[in-house]
Structure prediction request, 299 residues.
Amino acid sequence: MQYGVHKMTWGPFFDPDRPEDFFAQAKEIGADTVELRPTDAMLSLDLAKCHEMRRLLEEYGLQVKFTYGFPKHLDMRSADPFVREYATDFLIRGIRCVAESGGSNIGSAGIYACWPTLYDNQMILPEDKYEHTMRSLECVRRAVRVAEECGVTLNIEMVNRFENYLLNTVDEGLAYCRAVDSKNCNLLLDVFHLGIEENDLLAAVRKAGQAGMIGHVHVSERNRAIPQEGSKADWKGLGEALREAGYTGGVTIEAAAGFDGASSYNMRIFRDLQEDVTLAGRLRALKSSLAFLRGQMEA
Prediction:
């Protein structure tokens, strides 16, 4: 497996206009892969920007996993067919952008619905969830055909009930992917979310593995901190479950270090999760975490 880092952990120290700084730091701490969101210019299919991203990734010798999300006014769950049409087009542009930028994966809960869900305006009933899921499926089925043409895999992330209601469990994710019906649609397994929603996290991972639908993996501690020595999580068991599935893809540390503004607010993190939240402190924690996870999860 390849072990990597998510730009989220950088917090305010990540500059989207200077991805080369992020890449250099990730390389220095021993990452094989990086995960980040395409810039707005890239999502507008500015090919010069996309190709510059590809060049930088090749220069630093890093594999890339792209994360993604819709603007708040675009939601595949919407009852308005024009909103769904624009949302589908936005995802299709994202797929083309990823292909032009040297990536082959794009994943998050933001592929199939806006994230996070705000529950202030309505109570979600089972019939609402079903109807919204059907609308989302209709859009993703259209977009995945472009993904097939571009050689890009959509990795559908199940998130906890406090952040979204459409897909919370591996069973729901598998049913969704099977309904999409494409080899280019798989699951993104995030142990933080699965730890909330699944009765048995490792059994859920094995179920996804038996289905042959693990596309990517996110890891963090149970409170979303960076995994470290002394962790109570069963990282050896997770590594064994992934190897049993024949998984050889990416394992990304998607963790929080401190309260970093909007992204932290969306995840309802209101305190620092480690003592030193300077850039140097974050990099030290990530470097030790990468070594720790490799030692725990590999045979």
